[in-house]
Amino acid sequence: MDAGTKLCCLIGNPVGHSISPLIHNSISEKMGINMVYTAFAVESDNVVEAVRGAYALGINGMNVTVPHKVAVMEALSQIDELAQRIGAVNTLVRAEDGFKGYNTDIIGLMRLLEDAGIEIKGNSFIILGAGGASRAIVYLCASCGADRIFLLNRSVDKAKQLAEEVNSFFPDIVEALPLKDYGRIPKGKYPVIQTTSVGLYPNCDIAPVEKDDFYELVSEGVDIICNPTNTKFMKLCAKHGAEAYNGLKMLLYQGVAAYELWNNVKVPRNICDEVLTLMEKEMQKNG
User: Fold this and answer.
1) Which tens digits make up the pLDDT trace of 132-189?
2) Torsions phi, psi for 153 (to 5 deg)
3) What's this model's pTM, rounded to 2 decimal places?
4) DSSP strand pairing (6-12 vs 61-64)
5) What is the DSSP string of 218-239?
6) Number of C-beta neighbours around residue 65 at 10 A
7) Residues 194, 221: contact at Cβ < 8 Å?
8) What amino acid positions are annotated as catalytic residues?
9) SS3 151
10) For the CA atoms of the chain, what is the radius of gyration?
11) 92 and 76 Cβ atoms separated by less than 8 Å
12) Phi, psi of 81 (to 5 degrees)
């Protein structure tokens, strides 16, 4: 580090489990870019102050994780059109009069689904949760031609609000249901994307849905949680014969997209693969 080192960071709460610093600092090292990345725990009441303070300090860019992806929008001078439509931001890029907000979660999930061989077009999905990450995922599935999206959330009002917003652009594609009413979903097999924080370290022994009959609906399960790498949701998917994937690749690829925005570079695929290996080793060490 020196006086010319760019500083980027993550804000959220909690952030102690995050491996985002490993992603960004490894890319910087491998590409010879003078940038460092760290993480700050920020309480919900202090999000706007934290973002404005970061700008005043000259911080080059920021990532935003749960639970701040919606609240942070109040602190921004500009918001990318797609992020505005999604209604959630996870990447901030320094601009002349403040930070501009983007949503790179959508890029991360698309790359994860491609690597897993899960087609969006013509497929019907079950999505668990209606928070900031879910918003990006619902919009991705709708915009890429999903046939139907069943959006399940403990608070059905929150799910209904998101469904109404998406259906205003893609009519009648999203159906909102209380989480407990999964039995109303037509019998069949569906890719299921788990977007809640239920099962996140250290609360590893719970899943958003515990009942076995739900998992008879699952063709593939994707949990956007990275820590632990094998969540209870994933274990229940596997118990019922479904392939299960964690959120490591989504985290990697959304981070790569943010890194490229901050530094105006293209991160090569071989470096992405090397960083993914480092992430897997780090998770094994911690798990």
Assistant:
1) 789 889 999 999 999 999 999 999 999 999 999 999 999 999 999 999 999 999 999 9
2) -150, 150
3) 0.88
4) parallel
5) EEEEEE---SSSS-HHHHHHHH
6) 21
7) yes
8) 69
9) strand
10) 19
11) yes
12) -60, -45
